[in-house]
Amino acid sequence: MYKMLVTDLDDTLLNSDNVISEQNIRAIQQMTSAGFHFVMASGRPLASVYQLAKETGCKEQLSYIIAYNGGVIYDLKREKVVYQQGLNPEDQETLISFLNRSPLASLTYDQQEIVINWKNDYTQIESELTGLPCRYDAEFFEQLNDVLPKMMGVGDPKIVQQIYQDYSGRFGQATRLTISKPFYLEIVHQEVSKGRAIEEIAQLLNLELSEIIGMGDSYNDLEMLQTSGKAVVVENGHPELKKIAAEIAPSNNHNGVAYIIKKYFIKD
Fold first, then answer.
1. Burial category of 22 from C-beta neighbours within 10 Å (exposed 0-12, middle 13-18, buried 19 and up)
2. N or C: which end of the chain has fewer CB atoms below 10 A?
3. 133, exposed or middle or buried, with CB in 10 Å at 0-12, 13-18, 19+?
4. Closest-CA residue to 195 (of 168, 220, 232)
5. How much is the pTM?
C-alpha cells in the first residue's frame, strides 16, 4: 500500500499555464484528508514552492516540501527548515568563474529575489515561472560570501547540453550538474538530489521507500524516480525517463497527478 506521493512541479503538477488545475487541487485535498502524505519536490527556490503549497488550499495538512532540487527540506507544520545542503565554497568560486567565462548567464537566489549577472533570451523565464522578482546584478556574484543552495547556467539549450556532457564531474567531487528544463543547467552539492530528500523525509515519517510513489518529467527527477517504490512519468516527460518508469500517467495538461492519486490513494 502506498502512503506518500512525491511530485515534481513544473511540467508535472503544474500545467502549461504554470498553475495547479482545479482537478489536481481537489485530488490533493482528498488525499491528504484521507491521511496520506503529499510532497512537492522542485528545483524552485523555497519561497516559490511554499506559495504553491498554499495554493492547494490544504497547506496545513501537508507535511514537507522539497526545494532547490533537494537542497532544502521544509517542515510545513513546524514552519522550519529541517535539512539544507549548499554548494562547497571552493567549488562555488570555481563555478562562478567558469560561468562568467561561458555563454550562459549565471542565476541564483537572494532572499526572495532571483539574481542574474546578465540578460539573454532565457533569463526572464525563471521569474515568470516562480513569480519572484528578477534583479540583474553582476557584482552580486563577484562579492558573494554566502554559500548558495543552488546555481544555474541559463541559455541556449544546445550549449546547456554540451556543457552538461563535457563538464559533469569536473567541478570537484562535491558538485552535481543536472538539467531541469532544456535551457537550465542546475548546479548543486553532490549529495543533493530529490531522491536523497525523499530518503530523509521517509525517515522523518517512518515510511518505507516501497510505500512512496515518485512522479516527474525531467532529468532532475531521475534520482527521485529511482528511489521511490514506484516511478511514474507523465506523458509529456522526457523519453529517457519513460524508459525507467513503472507507469506513464496522463500529461501535466491532463491532470496526471489527479489520475495517480485517484488510482492509488482515494479509490472509489
1. exposed
2. C
3. exposed
4. 220
5. 0.92
When the candidates are 3.40.50.1000, 3.40.50.300, 1.10.3810.10, 3.20.20.300, the CATH number that belongs to 4-85+192-265 is: 3.40.50.1000
Condensed to tens digits (0 to 9), the pLDDT of residues 218-265 reads 999 999 999 999 999 999 999 999 999 999 999 999 999 999 999 999
Domain 89-189 = CATH 3.30.1240.10: yes
Cα(54)–Cα(49) distance, integer angstroms: 9
% of the chain with per-residue pLDDT over 90: 86
> How far apart, in whole angstroms, are the C-alpha atoms of residue 4 and residue 54?
19
Mean pLDDT of the chain: 94
Instruction: Write the pLDDT tens digit of every residue in 47-70.
Output: 999 999 999 999 999 999 999 999
